[in-house]
Amino acid sequence: MRTTVGIIGAGPAGLLLARLLHNAGIDAVVLESRDRTYVERRQRAGILEQGTADVLRAAGAGERMDREGLRHDGIELRFDRRRHRVDFPALTGGRSVTVYAQTEVCKDLVALQLRDGGPLLFEAEALAVEDAGTDAPRIRFRHEGRDDVLECAYVVGCDGFWGVARKAIPAGLAQVFERTYPFGWLGILADVPPSHDELVYARHDRGFALLSMRSPAVSRLYLQVPDGTDAGTWSDEAIWDELERRFETDDDWRLERGPITQKSVTPMRSYVHEPMRHGRLFLAGDAAHIVPPTGAKGLNLAVGDVVTFARALTHQQETGSPELLDAYSATCLRRVWQAERFSYDMTALLHRAPGATAFEDRLQLARLERIASSRAAETDLAEAYTGFPFG
Questions:
Q1: Active site (catalytic) residues
Q2: How would you classify residue 25: left for phi > 0, otherwise alpha for psi between -120 and 50, otherwise beta?
Q3: What is the pTM of this model?
Q4: Which of 13, 71, 208, 315 could tie 224 with a disulfide, CB 3.0–4.6 Å?
Q5: Using an 8 Å Cβ cutoff, are 388 and 307 in contact?
């Protein structure tokens, strides 16, 4: 099998890249180790930056997002029993974010790819990327019980942290930057309408909490818990009780309870692999970088990567110049590090570290007070949350 671009992974990054290349008249093959049901059901991010939503619309994948997604024009910060709303459009010249689950993004892109795109092979396990440093890289994969080879002009690894793409970059050429946090998020899905119409980020002496949503009828909520926590040790009643404590305010706001349908614990880490390119192998998304979920950047960073690659390859096809492809890693990493900075800052601002001192607690409150009282500080948060420019 032969193609111009071999894409490993049918998450939102790989699927969107396939769509962008199709629209540019460039052929591609997508290999995904899981089946279609898994791809369309795995729960991940749910906040789309302004730029991500715009890219999906331009790619022809925004119709259902615009119909069913929830536009959010701000977030609420809670601290010291107080509430402060950050107004995104007023601070950023009209930008906003959209609540639309990654599962739904994947469903839309899968349907488009199967309808009019190139081959999308489910249950096709990529085994290795070979000859990445040459002009003819290859992906060895297994599909329907047979080993096969996909010969490519370029390979894009959208296969996550545990995938094979990054392993094809020689260790001597790579530099890794990472941080592991001593806490995680206990996340739940609950069949109850959200108790607030925008996301609520709460800093509390007992730990961080987040009120989010998946739809007008389904709430998504999180609690900061110690690293290594087993979600099964938390009863539904204990989860709701703790959420109530951490969201408490001095007004009459109340948290609505409902049946919890899913609970899990997400570890927190920051990770960056440099470079994001070796020869004709390009890394995108979690294969190259991971952010703690506090800043809602993971999916959006992946979109920035594949937009950068698609623009660069289209530029080469049209002009013959490899300039943008050669700059891929540096271009992506500028945005990646800004997102890493913002995600780290939000995590440090809102989470209480184990053993935190009274001095550190007061510094957190002082930083939140600064955001609530300074338009400049508030604008910095709003600009970062709604998204850094692509490229």
A1: 72, 201, 293, 297, 385
A2: left
A3: 0.95
A4: 208
A5: no
